[in-house]
Specification:
elongated; 3-stranded antiparallel sheet; Four Helix Bundle (Hemerythrin (Met), subunit A); Arc Repressor Mutant, subunit A; 3 strands; 2 domains; mainly alpha; 10 helices
Length: 239
């Protein structure tokens, strides 16, 4: 097995560097450190956590790559402007939403993530989350009754409920990384043209079928109905 400069097995160093990176992220979150806040030098961190500078450098390298920390001359390691995964991801996706092709690819990615997670959702969803989904659908039905009288207001209210419905499905899968990723994508679509169209009875029925299949813990039916609901996003753009 390969060893590092400080004599530890390479696997151990990687584990220690990952643990240190997690500790630094926790400090940033728990202490609510603002961008520019000083975390210390390599020597400071090595002393604080009782590890070698090799471990510190590996941890810092991974956090730099994610945009979590940055180095400043005379100060050492500092919190970067993007101090969480979601903000890093939002910046990374900006070029995508600048073009119709990129926007379509993000729609496809969102659909793939949600459909791919539905089995976990059906397996892990709690009774409270099932009730939440069914309550959202019931509220969608109530809102839709006002479509002819107040199209703009109904579309806005339905849009909010649609967002909550799909976010609830992903949250029920209990995958923190997927939740953050999917949440960022939904935020883009929530503010974009995807929801510019008026709600329709077909979409409302699809939401109801999805919620009922999940409540019955029927993975096959839930996958089928969710795929049909998101199928427009899975289609490749016309050329």
């Amino acid at each position: 097995m390969k060893t590092s400069q400080d004599g530890r097995p390479q696997e151990s160093v990687k584990t220690l560097s990952a643990e240190l990176a997690d500790h630094l992220c926790e400090r940033i979150r728990n202490d609510r450190l603002a961008p520019g806040a000083r975390l210390g030098t390599e020597a400071d961190l090595a002393d604080q956590f009782g590890v070698s500078r090799t471990v510190v450098r590996e941890a810092i390298g991974s956090l730099r790559g994610l945009g979590v920390v940055t180095g400043r001359q005379g100060l050492g390691l500092c919190v970067a402007e993007a101090n969480n995964f979601s903000s890093v991801l939002r910046k990374a996706l900006v070029p995508q939403v600048a073009s119709p092709e990129g926007w379509r690819e993000l729609q496809q990615l969102r659909a793939v993530i949600e459909i791919g997670s539905i089995a976990l959702t059906v397996e892990l969803i709690s009774a409270e989350e099932i009730v939440r989904l069914q309550t959202i659908v019931a509220e969608m039905k109530r809102v839709m009754k006002n479509l002819n009288r107040d199209p703009a207001g109904t579309s806005k209210a339905y849009k909010e409920l649609d967002y909550l419905f799909h976010q609830t499905i992903l949250n029920a899968s209990h995958g923190k990384f997927m939740q953050q990723f999917h949440g960022v994508l939904l935020d883009y679509f929530h503010a974009g043209d995807l929801y510019g169209r008026s709600p329709a009875e077909k979409g409302l029925r699809e939401h109801e079928l999805i919620a009922n299949a999940i409540a019955d813990r029927d993975i096959d039916q839930a996958t089928k109905f969710l795929t049909e609901h998101l199928r427009p996003q899975l289609k490749a753009p016309c050329k």
